């Protein structure tokens, strides 16, 4: 396990039992979530346009089973957790909780929509220990149509269960999320294609993180909950963005770290960032630290699928001691996030409890690098 320099308390017998209990609760929560998700998707498709094309309905169910149901629904859980914390206790009734479940399911399906298109763009080989969706023989050139249908399904789910200003705001913010993801994908794809390493800057990396990770992974669950609770306004949204910015960077840095691993032990995917010439944290920092000679090695080897070139890049990262820099920055951003959370007042709309619960959820989803 990588040592972050963070103090980790030793667990006694009772603490171990509590941890095991928490994991059991998490698994039960995931199973309930998946059951609700399948019920919502089945009902919406049965009463919508998709029902007129049974083969398409069957295909969308298979995609849901192939991706959505095989992973911990972190975005969905975070949305529900945020709602449960932010909602007035008197309004936590069955009707409102079901609406929150609907929005959580829409959020998790959006995650699947993003993952299958991201894997296709990156030409990734595996996800969840199996071939990526786009590599299945029956998918092939239908990958973009599948993604489009999944996005339409999400809109149908929201329309079927929400109404009034809440529905309008949800559609707006889901559209904003899709726009942000598209901008992030554009940057993440076009910067490597340009083969111009002057574009590998901290500024551009931060843009990719903001658009492709932070907004939809961390800001969205909280903003969705705020809309459901009718406690949403631009000032609160901006505060959410400020508080979680460091966590978004940590998520992306940890994703980038996948390239140092031989197995899918971080983000349930194989790492191909070096081969694809991605603008990652390590590539940016390597170019910042490298000597002229080392920069030539980088330029000659980066973005190549030749195993020897990949080995040269990894060796270069090690020579530049980027792992130590990574750990140092991890500590700094993690501790700054905790400081911002601890400064919140208990009666604030954005109470410390909200971010503590979301952080705990993230830790259960392999927060630390092993």
UniProtKB/TrEMBL annotation:
UniProt keyword annotations, A-Z: Magnesium, Metal-binding, Transferase
One Gene Ontology term from the biological process aspect of the record: pheromone biosynthetic process
The protein's annotated pathway: Pheromone biosynthesis
Gene3D superfamilies in alphabetical order: Farnesyl Diphosphate Synthase
InterPro entries: FPS1-like, Isoprenoid_synthase_dom_sf, Polyprenyl_synt
Gene Ontology, cellular component aspect: cytoplasm
Keyword Metal-binding: yes
SUPFAM superfamilies in the cross-refs: Terpenoid synthases
Family membership: Belongs to the FPP/GGPP synthase family.
Name of the protein this chain belongs to: Farnesyl pyrophosphate synthase
Cofactor: Mg(2+)
A GO MF term: metal ion binding
Native source species: Papilio machaon
Keyword DNA damage: no
């Amino acid at each position: 396990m990588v040592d972050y320099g963070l103090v980790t308390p030793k667990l006694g017998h009772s603490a171990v039992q509590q941890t095991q209990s928490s994991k059991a609760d998490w698994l039960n929560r995931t199973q309930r979530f998946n059951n609700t998700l399948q019920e919502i998707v089945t009902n919406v498709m049965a009463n919508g346009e998709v029902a007129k094309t049974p083969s398409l309905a069957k295909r969308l169910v298979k995609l849901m089973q192939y991706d959505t149901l095989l992973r911990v629904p972190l975005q969905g859980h975070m949305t529900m957790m945020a709602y449960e914390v932010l909602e007035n206790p008197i309004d936590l009734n069955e009707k409102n909780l079901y609406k929150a479940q609907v929005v959580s399911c829409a959020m998790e399906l959006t995650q699947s929509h993003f993952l299958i298109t991201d894997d296709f763009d990156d030409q990734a080989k595996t996800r969840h220990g199996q071939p990526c969706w786009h590599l299945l023989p029956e998918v092939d050139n239908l990958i973009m149509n599948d993604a489009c249908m999944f996005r339409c399904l999400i809109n149908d789910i929201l329309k079927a269960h929400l109404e009034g200003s809440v529905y309008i705001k949800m559609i707006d913010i889901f559209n904003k999320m899709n726009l942000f993801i598209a901008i992030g994908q554009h940057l993440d794809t076009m910067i490597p294609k340009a083969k111009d390493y002057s574009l590998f800057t901290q500024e551009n990396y931060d843009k990719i993180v903001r658009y492709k990770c932070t907004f939809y992974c961390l800001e969205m669950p909280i903003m969705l909950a705020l809309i459901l609770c009718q406690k949403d306004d631009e000032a609160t949204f901006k505060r959410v963005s400020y508080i979680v910015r460091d966590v978004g960077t940590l998520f992306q840095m940890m994703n980038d770290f996948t390239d140092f691993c031989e197995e899918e032990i971080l983000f349930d995917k194989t790492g191909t960032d070096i081969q694809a010439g991605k603008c990652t944290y390590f590539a940016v920092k390597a170019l910042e630290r490298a000597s002229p000679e080392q920069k030539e090695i980088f330029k000659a080897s980066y973005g190549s699928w030749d195993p020897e070139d990949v080995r040269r890049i990894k060796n270069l990262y090690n020579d530049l001691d980027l792992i130590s820099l990574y750990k140092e920055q991890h500590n700094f951003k993690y501790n700054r996030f905790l400081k911002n959370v601890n400064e919140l007042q208990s009666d604030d709309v954005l109470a410390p409890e909200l971010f503590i619960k979301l952080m705990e959820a993230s830790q259960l989803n392999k927060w630390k690098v092993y």
